[in-house]
Write a structure and sequence with these properties.
The structure is a homotrimer.
Chain A lengths: L12 H13 L12 E6 L5 H12 L3 E6 L7 E2 L12 E2 H11 L2 E5 L7 H5 L2 H10 L3 E3 L7 H14 L6 E6 L9 H12 L3 E5 L8 H4 L3 E2 L3 H5 L4 E5 L21 H4 L6 E3 L12 H4 L6 H23 L5 H8 L1
Parallel strand pairs in A: 1-2, 1-5, 3-4, 5-6, 7-8, 7-10, 8-9, 10-11
Chain lengths: 329, 329, 329
């Protein structure tokens, strides 16, 4: 892979999953691959799992990490091209990204959507310009529209726990107190479909996701019907794509409960975390053996490590100066 | 040790002190013991000495560190069990701790008390639940009621500087502008008593510490009497345990001064830092040869390294997968 | 070098530049020089380039890094000597610096000026007291009056790109929306003059820099005249030194534009970043081949690495305990 921002950046999905499983079995199997390489982790928004699991993944590969909360520790960044910078913003993305590119061999970036300007968000303007100006391999730590590291870990978890070759997976909309991005569900859908999973998406009317990601999935507005015979239920809230960024009022009946789960094929319950207990998902289910949320979070490390491995392999050839130094060492 | 949250977690105190001294004499003596191991340092409150000294200790042992200000960089954490999470809190301690446990071999946690709910604080509910849900060895970086890494460094410092086998140590209450936790004095008392130190505690009436920690010490309300023949004076403010969390009005006469120190046996002066100059302790004493505050802070590194060494030894046996990888490497 | 706070700390400038070029050609050439050594990076103000480039430089030399935002993550620091600490400040610089000195082999410190008290700022009271109390080699990450790491990278960039042995360099005042420190221009001037550069400084009347740094440079109030035959133009805003900390109202005509650059000898354009596009400097120039800003930022890594190398060499002799451990390892 040159970059890692969507499943479409992946040349060979099975090979990527195999690398993740290999790293899970033997976490330090590729400890020298990142030798003398630097991963930058830059955050425009909060992060817990992604920050820690990606940092740990870098350590497994022997990479150095430079991590920074760009929103808090650095200078306020101007993203608009052509802006006369006489306001509160101190540094333009062109310079900021260019400089980070000079210091890092791979750049991880987290940038959430505005949820007010759909065109802007779905153009991924921040991510795209970071890639352009930084000019090094970019690793998405969740962007405006996608969260590929999460989805890879999710697919890995499903493969590990599936009772059948092609399980039925239901992505089930959940209530929430805030308007959330569509990045996790968009991403989940495109990875499941690429991974040849039988995917059903269930949500209230008006909460259809962008079809670019869901084409090939079954859309079912009746949650109970959707859950029938499911092997996995992936619970997630998202705000409206069509009435952009709008939160659903009410919808509490969409919370997944043990009773609802009874309609499935003893399905496992998944969530990307953080989860609002007894709002999105019944606390009883989270604390039950049906829950895979801890396994998903654990797999984030191996997903990130597999991706970093392939980014390094593709972008830094074996006969690079770096490798020669390795031989000397 | 399985965990390190109190002196009661320590099997052999002399052995722990010996390890600390060994590390002080030869800081990289155990550089491979933490190879391929990850220490998480998670802060719900500010930290300077503890953060830096523990991070440095991990480096001495070859451990990787993942550090994070959970209160600022992550998601707002809900601590209450059974909470319907429809408010401002984004993630429950059950999920947060479980996930951190997946990424770390040892978890360091700092969590201060409320100072409003004594039962809650003295149940150490945050620490206890972190231990339970993370399910890896826990290293207290100061909890609601105890600060064992500080106390170990203090005991080490006293052993190094003591003119006699069993010195007289006085823990002397000091004035302060804010209501402070009882963690440092509680912890100091339990470590001194376990270390067979002749401990006197002096404080205004109403500022008695919880007897669980002080049983065996001499309590003396008259500071001048208490100081007589002392070899060490440990200065510290704390708020009331009995009238929980209440700060003493006035009490300026309790500030340790050169005149007061004259009543001692040329005692050394100690403080855990940060210290309010000329409020808790005379600036003249802090800047005099009697002060051990810098030595105490320096010993924090070796105290933390000895503890991490024993946590790794106890919890990760020599024939673990990690060790096999070591052999391969 | 014992410390690195000004060009006057440098014994042999050509040797330092040579080390930087050597590290640029072979970044891991000195990978063992920082083995078992710890660099502390402490920030009282925001930092992007300096933080990341210095951290990366430490990694190139095999040093461990302890980084901390002292203004946000630690305790509020009292800088005044003799203060009775009964207000909002929790820890005195005497204790804070002493403790950091115990944990680090080299301390990097960033501390901006007040811009209200010239005497205080130009005495470098924070930097000086940090050095005194920490008692380890100090690396300035930009202080109240100087930014030597930036200037070293600038001089390196000029040497690399100069068409002649002794180029004409113009430091050109630029408009800005805020009152900025004089640290970058002061420092730039003293490094250029020490490096035997033909330096002209142009700025509005009343914006003369402190002569301690500019003695030997040509001062020219007419920007057009100043730019004639220049090989490099270094663009930078600063507030008044004489009417201390005052920002210039207006002055927009001082912005460097392609038309103005036409008067030079096809000069290269430099800026330390962050830069306000179309306020300080025309965006067209920043995006043109004339711009060296990315090259300057890239050179920050090698400037910092060369400085760290020489600080380690000077302060930690080859027969130190550290080295003996190296032999054992």
């Amino acid at each position: 892979m040159k970059h890692f921002t969507t499943v479409n950046d992946v040349y060979d999905l099975d090979n990527l999953l195999d690398d993740a499983l290999l790293l899970k079995a033997d976490p330090f199997a590729f400890k020298s691959i990142g030798f003398n390489r630097t991963l930058g982790l830059f955050f425009l928004n909060p992060s817990l799992r992604t920050r820690l699991s990606t940092q740990k993944a870098a350590q497994l590969l022997g990479m150095s990490v430079l991590a920074m909360n760009l929103d808090k520790e650095g200078w306020a960044i101007e993203f608009e091209d052509g802006a006369v910078m006489n306001g509160g913003k101190t540094e333009h993305i062109r310079e900021a990204a260019a400089v980070l590119g000079e210091y890092c061999d791979v750049i991880g970036l987290r940038c959430f959507p505005t949820l007010t300007d759909r065109k802007e968000d779905y153009s991924e303007s921040i991510l795209v310009r970071f890639m352009r100006y930084a000019n090094v391999p970019l690793l998405s730590l969740e962007s405006a529209t996608l969260h590929p590291l999460q989805s890879l870990a999710d697919l890995l978890t499903i493969r590990e726990h599936s009772p059948v070759r092609r399980p039925k997976v239901v992505l089930s909309w959940a209530p929430h107190v805030k308007a959330l991005p569509q990045a996790v569900p968009n991403s989940f859908a495109e990875w499941m479909l690429r991974g040849d999973i039988d995917l059903t998406i269930t949500h209230p009317e008006g909460f259809e996701l962008c079809e670019d990601y869901t084409r090939g999935a079954t859309i079912e507005y009746d949650q109970e019907k959707a859950l029938k015979d499911a092997d996995f239920v992936y619970v997630k809230n998202w705000s409206s794509y069509h009435d952009y960024g709008k939160k659903k009022e009410g919808g509490d009946e969409w919370m997944l409960t043990p009773a609802r789960l009874g309609r499935t094929n003893s399905a496992k319950v998944m969530h990307c975390l953080p989860v609002r207990r007894d709002v999105e998902l019944s606390a009883k289910l989270l604390d039950s053996p049906a829950s895979l949320v801890r396994a998903q979070a654990a797999n984030r490390v191996f997903a990130a490590a597999a991706v970093l491995k392939q980014l390094l392999e593709h972008n830094y050839s074996a006969v690079s100066k770096n490798e020669k130094q390795l031989e000397k060492a």
